[in-house]
Amino acid sequence: MTLRKTLVYAAFMAASIATAPTSATELIYGTGSGSKSRINIDAIVPFMEATTKASGGSITWKYMPGNQIVTVFSALKGVRDGLVDAGMVVPVFARKDLIHVNVVYDTYYYSGDDPIAASGAAHETILLRCPACVEEYRRNKAFLLASYGGSTDSLVCTKPVRTLADLKGLKVRAAGAQQRIAKALGTVPIAVPPQELTLALERGALDCAIMALNWMVSFGVQDVAKHVLDLPMGSSRGLGLIVMSRPSWDKLDPAQKKILWEHAPLASARAVATSYIALDKKYRETAKGITFYKPGDDLKAILKQVVADERGNLVKALQKQGAKNVGAIVDAYLEVLEKWKRLSRDEIKDDPNAYARALEREIYRKVDPNKL
Question: Strand 208-211's sheet: what is its strand order?
Answer without folding.
Answer: 188-190, 171-173, 208-211, 154-157, 227-229, 291-293
